[in-house]
């Protein structure tokens, strides 16, 4: 099968640091290549793939801010759609904009909906509902107004995460520094639990960082910036527990699957996809408040770290995700 995988052009595919959509697009592309399929990845020019690479820009607009995001997105999507006839299937990992071409081409399109940035974009998905193939990344992140082909959980390269059964004593916050992700709540949990906290991630909300994070930084609460793959493995693996006190209905938390692959239990606020990702009391704890999270920190020794690894391997591996998508591809391309 000749497959085109459309990745975003914000970051490199796979990303150097942040870029969850790019990471999944890469895992899908490389997974299909491993199955022997003919894959062309549409991504930034510095992207890495064992297949064919097509690009309209040397690097992503988040990595080179001299570029205009809308212009790049327009050129990027059109470069694939004008060649649509060369492919048996297009796998869209680039949100709703590519759908606007989908009735102008004959090649079927499967779209992974990586989340809804706002309810306003649902109307675009609704317009193409009857002629599209939508996949959700968790059952919790489904719009009742849309039809779905399936739910396929994000899959990670398990070999890239080292299991660690002898953790350090620190708590870890791993994600964007943004109110949605609960950086401030993680700090309060650590302070009340009297534990060290390492904060790793990109600052996405500068004002929030200045007001809610920076004033608390000291020897106990440390901000260590972005963490690439090598640093990520060490940070997650050595953590006593991963804190994920989100304030929004997160479609899927990549860092949760990553943490569990390293054997690290997760303490998360019970919202969005969290009950699907975490087996409560077995691979972590689902809580609703800072105080409940503090209590969960004290109960972390009851969790077997090997159980975290086993659960994550079984549910969130690249191989499982790719096989699930391959079954969908075969249903679409008769």
Overall description:
With 334 residues, this protein is of the alpha/beta class. Helices cover 33% and strands 16% of the residues. It is built from 11 helices and 13 strands. The protein has helices at 20-34, 69-81, 122-127, 183-193, 206-213, 229-238, 254-261, 274-277, 290-299, 305-315, 318-332; strands spanning 2-6, 38-42, 52-54, 89-92, 109-113, 133-136, 150-151, 171-174, 197-200, 221-225, 241-244, 266-269, 284-287. A 7-stranded parallel beta sheet has the order 3-2-1-4-5-6-7. Strands 10-9-8-11-12-13 form a 6-stranded parallel beta sheet, sandwiched between helices. Helix 1 packs across helix 11, helix 4 (183-193) crosses helix 9 and helix 7 (254-261) packs across helix 10. The longest helix is centred in the N-terminal third of the chain and has 15 residues, at 20-34. The radius of gyration is 20 Å and the shape is globular. The protein starts with a strand and ends with a helix. The mean pLDDT is 96.
What share of residues is helical?
25-40%
- What's the overall geometry? globular
Secondary structure class reads alpha/beta
The main β sheet shows up as: 7 strands, parallel
Uncertain spans, ≥5 residues at pLDDT below 50? none
Secondary-structure map with pairings?
Elements: E1 2-6, H1 20-34, E2 38-42, E3 52-54, H2 69-81, E4 89-92, E5 109-113, H3 122-127, E6 133-136, E7 150-151, E8 171-174, H4 183-193, E9 197-200, H5 206-213, E10 221-225, H6 229-238, E11 241-244, H7 254-261, E12 266-269, H8 274-277, E13 284-287, H9 290-299, H10 305-315, H11 318-332
Parallel strand pairs: 1-2, 1-4, 2-3, 4-5, 5-6, 6-7, 8-9, 8-11, 9-10, 11-12, 12-13
Helix pairs in contact: 1-11, 4-9, 7-10
């Amino acid at each position: 099968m000749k497959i085109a995988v459309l990745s975003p052009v914000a970051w490199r595919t796979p990303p150097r640091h942040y870029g969850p959509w790019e990471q999944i697009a890469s895992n899908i592309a490389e997974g299909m290549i491993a199955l022997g399929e003919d894959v062309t990845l549409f991504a930034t020019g510095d992207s890495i793939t064992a297949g064919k690479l097509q690009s309209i820009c040397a690097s992503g607009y988040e990595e080179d801010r001299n570029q205009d995001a809308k212009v790049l997105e327009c050129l990027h999507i059109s470069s694939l759609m004008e060649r649509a006839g060369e492919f048996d299937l297009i796998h869209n990992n680039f949100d709703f904009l590519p759908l606007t071409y989908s009735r102008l081409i004959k090649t079927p399109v499967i779209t992974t909906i990586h989340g809804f940035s706002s309810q306003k974009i649902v109307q675009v998905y609704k317009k193409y509902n009857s002629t599209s193939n939508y996949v959700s990344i968790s059952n919790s992140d489904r719009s009742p107004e849309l039809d779905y082909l399936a739910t396929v959980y994000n899959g990670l390269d398990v070999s890239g995460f080292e299991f660690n059964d002898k953790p350090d004593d620190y708590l870890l916050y791993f994600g964007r520094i943004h109110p949605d992700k609960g950086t401030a709540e993680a700090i309060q949990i650590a302070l009340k639990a009297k534990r060290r906290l390492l904060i790793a991630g990109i600052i996405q909300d500068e004002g929030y960082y200045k007001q809610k994070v920076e004033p608390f930084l000291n020897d106990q609460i440390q901000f260590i910036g972005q963490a690439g793959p090598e640093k990520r493995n060490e940070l997650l693996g050595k953590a006593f527990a991963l804190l994920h006190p989100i304030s929004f209905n997160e479609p899927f938390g990549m860092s949760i699957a990553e943490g569990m692959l390293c054997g690290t239990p997760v303490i998360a606020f019970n919202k969005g996809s969290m009950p699907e990702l975490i087996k409560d009391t077995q691979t972590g704890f689902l809580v609703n408040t800072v105080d409940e999270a503090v209590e969960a920190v004290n109960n972390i020794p009851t969790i077997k770290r090997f159980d975290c690894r086993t659960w994550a391997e079984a549910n969130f591996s690249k191989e499982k995700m790719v096989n699930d998508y391959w079954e969908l591809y075969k249903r679409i391309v008769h």
